[in-house]
UniProtKB/TrEMBL annotation, chain A:
Keyword check for Lyase: yes
Family listed: Belongs to the LeuD family. LeuD type 1 subfamily.
Subunit structure: Heterodimer of LeuC and LeuD.
Signal peptide: none
Ranges of residues in domain Aconitase A/isopropylmalate dehydratase small subunit swivel: 1-115
Organism: Prauserella cavernicola
Pfam families documented for this protein: Aconitase_C
EC number of this enzyme: 4.2.1.33
Upper taxonomic lineage: Bacteria, Bacillati, Actinomycetota, Actinomycetes, Pseudonocardiales
Descriptive protein name: 3-isopropylmalate dehydratase small subunit
UniProtKB/TrEMBL annotation, chain B:
Recorded metabolic or biological pathway in which this protein acts: Amino-acid biosynthesis; L-leucine biosynthesis; L-leucine from 3-methyl-2-oxobutanoate: step 2/4
The keyword Ligase appears for this protein: no
Entry similarity comment: Belongs to the aconitase/IPM isomerase family. LeuC type 1 subfamily.
Region of interest (Disordered), residue spans: 420-449
Record-given protein name: 3-isopropylmalate dehydratase large subunit
PANTHER family attached to this UniProt entry: 3-ISOPROPYLMALATE DEHYDRATASE, HOMOACONITASE, MITOCHONDRIAL-RELATED
InterPro entries: 3-IsopropMal_deHydase_lsu, Acnase/IPM_dHydase_lsu_aba_1/3, Acoase/IPM_deHydtase_lsu_aba, Aconitase_4Fe-4S_BS, Aconitase_4Fe-4S_dom, IPM_dehydratase_rel_enz, IPMI_cat
Enzyme Commission identifier(s): 4.2.1.33
Native species: Prauserella cavernicola
GO term, biological process aspect, one: L-leucine biosynthetic process
Keyword terms, alphabetized: 4Fe-4S, Amino-acid biosynthesis, Branched-chain amino acid biosynthesis, Iron, Iron-sulfur, Leucine biosynthesis, Lyase, Metal-binding
Pfam families named among the record's database cross-references: Aconitase (PF00330)
Length: 200, 471
């Protein structure tokens, strides 16, 4: 994973709450077995509407999405994060994120920055009044800046550290391989295994 | 002293699976007892293993099935959609290469991943269960800590059989009383979600408690825990009891003999201590519940069936008002219309929420001797091949087909429309599934979430109905 320290890009106001992952990428786009190429599915149903924000200059070049509360609810599909990143987004700002989406974002290097809803409203107004306004998200100091606007955001410290360092989760866990093996040695023998049963 | 305080069920299961405690901001490392795999969220995870030269650490704690993409007709033929076929073929190759047990399309044990785990007896009290699917919360009905994960985490579990996680907060959902006739587990959980909202459970594991929960069957408990994610929760749990043990005893992977006795002794400890403290508590009176249906485009937008479509102008919060206006526009509904007058084109009975044998029995009980309304299409999709066979042994399939419904093979089907079972643009469904999101069941499709009883009655009358409306 590429380290993330600071990012500046065009802010995109998405005035919707409860943007579920079926809206971020509908199920018909989940059939690929590769890890790339999901940008065509991003907000697929909404992109049919020419008024939709991503169909307008300069928002179609945006990389910082500013959304309503409860972003990423519903399905656990990591494809939602891949679609956002494949399109070019590096940060999503919202007052509330669904837990699985937030986790998936953290694994992939997409920053899920949790701001106060009042700050989201201010950003929406700024981005709508002055389209093309660039937003700077500084992960080290946990701030969002755009013109005169400054706000802090929340992100858990461990995810922040991993993103800043660009660390691979599995490699971090495997440092504790001995402890995993020792735990396994103490599991009760009656715990279920999936090994096929002998035909009786 | 915090150490002397009693623990909740969730805390007990968490503690028993902690490989190591995180220091400071570092998460705990949690051991995973059972990893369920399906074709949609696993291909990139297996690819990741190959790229890093890693193996599946515990294939004996891993099991796979094909459910999301599979057609529910002509399953003896190759899958017509080449992209779906590739995804299913990829799972087969990956399972073979990494030594993972797979129940493919047509196999006697194939079915929706959350139906087959409990059915095989693999889902057991006090275990940790994960799957690249948000409805993994279903398994919490057994007192397991079960939650959905993304594909990166699927790869992490395949490689290490663990996940780094911060402990979840705990919320008690206390439901006391006795539900009335035609009120089911589905109505209970839709009422819970309407009460706490789609974000109300964020960061929490919900423990459903109280007399109304204790009196439920395992299948009904699975319906409740299944939809915990629709309230935003990480997981839902119900303490195991005699109902749980009776369901498990004799299942293929349940412990046997002395192991069974040891397991049950352990499982009996899996209750929230009297002096434990939840981070949040919610109370619901079961006596007041009636059949519940959704009118909007998220599962929190629900009301009793006797109510009318709400008026957004009466909603004080600006964001919620805007969301309600958008939902009514998408759903093509007018404020004030009685919900009972909403006509549907399609009725879908199935899914990991309501695709088990008791759900089919309940719907068949309503449909017996009746016919599906003209112009309404009803799809009955069993949650697994075992459920399908059990239904056929009881003659339920003949009740459905005599009534004019379609009797299908097992899979996720129209719950999410990854296979050909989809709504057409503008079509409206009464669906026993779990999500009424825009386009969930097909682009432009409109979904009302309902119980199996309401689904069956709606199929007969053609408008949203409860069984009492048929008399």
């Amino acid at each position: 994973m590429e380290p993330f320290t600071k990012h500046t890009g065009v802010g995109v106001p998405l005035r919707r709450s409860n943007v579920d992952t079926d809206q971020i990428i509908p199920a018909v786009y989940l059939k690929r077995v590769s890890r790339t190429g999901f940008e065509d599915g991003l907000f697929a149903a909404w992109r049919g509407d020419e008024q939709f924000v991503l169909n307008q200059e300069p928002f179609n070049r945006g990389s910082v999405l500013v959304a309503g509360p409860d972003f990423g609810t519903g399905s656990s599909r990591e494809h939602a994060v891949w679609a956002l990143m494949d399109y070019g987004f590096r940060v999503v700002i919202s007052a509330r994120f669904a837990d699985i989406f937030r986790g998936n974002a953290g694994k992939q290097g997409l920053v899920a920055a949790q701001c106060e809803q009042a700050d989201v409203e201010l950003l929406w107004k700024l981005l709508e009044n002055e389209p093309g306004t660039e937003v700077t998200v500084d992960l080290a100091e946990k701030t969002v800046r755009a013109k005169d606007f400054v706000a802090t955001f929340q992100i858990d410290d461990y995810t922040r550290w991993r993103l800043l360092e660009g660390l691979d989760d599995i490699a971090l866990t495997l440092r504790h391989a001995d402890e995993i093996a020792s735990f396994e040695g103490q599991r009760p023998s009656w715990k279920p295994v999936t090994t096929p049963l002998a035909a009786s | 002293m915090a150490d002397e305080r009693g623990r909740t069920l969730a805390e007990k299961v968490w503690d028993a699976h902690t490989v190591r405690r995180g220091e400071g901001a570092e998460p705990d490392l949690l051991y995973i007892d059972l990893h369920l795999v399906h074709e949609v969220t696993s291909p990139q995870a297996f690819d990741g293993l190959r790229l890093a030269g890693r193996q599946v650490r515990r294939p004996d704690l891993t099991i796979a099935t094909e459910d999301h993409n599979v057609p529910t007709v002509d399953i003896d033929l190759p899958i017509a959609d080449p992209v779906s076929r590739t995804q299913v073929d990829t799972l087969r190759r990956n399972c073979k290469e990494f030594g993972v047990r797979l129940h493919p399309m047509g196999d006697a044990e194939q079915g929706i991943v959350h139906v087959i785990g409990p059915q095989l007896g693999l889902t057991q009290p006090g275990t940790t269960v994960v799957c690249g699917d948000s409805h993994t919360s279903t398994h919490g009905a057994f007192g397991a800590m079960a939650f959905g994960i993304g594909t990166s985490e699927v790869e992490h579990v395949l490689a290490t059989q663990t996940l780094p996680l911060r402990p979840f907060k705990t919320m008690a959902i206390n439901i006391e009383g006795t539900v009335g006739e035609s009120v089911t587990a589905k109505d209970i959980i839709l009422a819970v979600i309407a009460k706490i909202g789609t974000g109300g459970g964020q960061g929490y594991v919900l423990e459903y408690r109280g007399s109304a929960i204790e009196s439920l069957s395992m299948e009904a408990r699975m319906t409740i825990c299944n939809m915990s994610i629709e309230a935003g929760a990480r997981a839902g749990m119900i303490a195991p009891d005699e109902t749980t043990f009776a369901y498990l005893e004799g299942r293929p992977h349940a412990p046997q003999g002395a192991d069974w006795d040891a397991a049950v002794a352990d499982w009996r400890e899996l209750r929230t201590d009297d002096d434990a403290v939840f981070d949040a508590e919610v109370h619901l009176d079961a006596n007041e519940l009636t059949p519940f249906v959704t009118w909007g485009t998220n599962p929190g937008q629900g009301l009793p069936l006797g109510a009318a479509v709400p008026d957004p102008t009466a909603i004080p919060d600006e964001n919620e008002r805007f969301a309600a206006e958008k939902a009514l526009s998408y759903m093509d509904l007018q404020p004030g219309t009685p919900l009972r007058e909403i006509a549907v084109d399609t009725v879908f009975l199935g899914s990991c929420t309501n695709g088990r044998i008791e759900d089919l029995r309940a719907a068949a009980g309503v449909l017996q001797g009746r016919t599906v309304s003209e112009g309404v299409r009803m799809l009955v999709v069993p949650g697994s091949m075992r459920v399908r066979k059990a239904a056929e042994d009881e003659g339920l399939d003949r009740i459905f087909t005599s009534a004019g419904a379609e009797w299908r093979q097992a899979g996720c089907s129209m719950c999410l429309g990854m296979n050909p079972d989809q709504l057409q643009p503008g079509e409206r469904s009464a669906s026993t599934s779990n999500r009424n999101f825009e386009g969930r069941q097909g682009k432009g499709g409109r979904t009302h979430l309902v119980s199996p009883l309401v689904a069956a009655a709606t199929a007969v009358r053609g408008t949203l109905s409860s069984p009492e409306d048929l008399n």
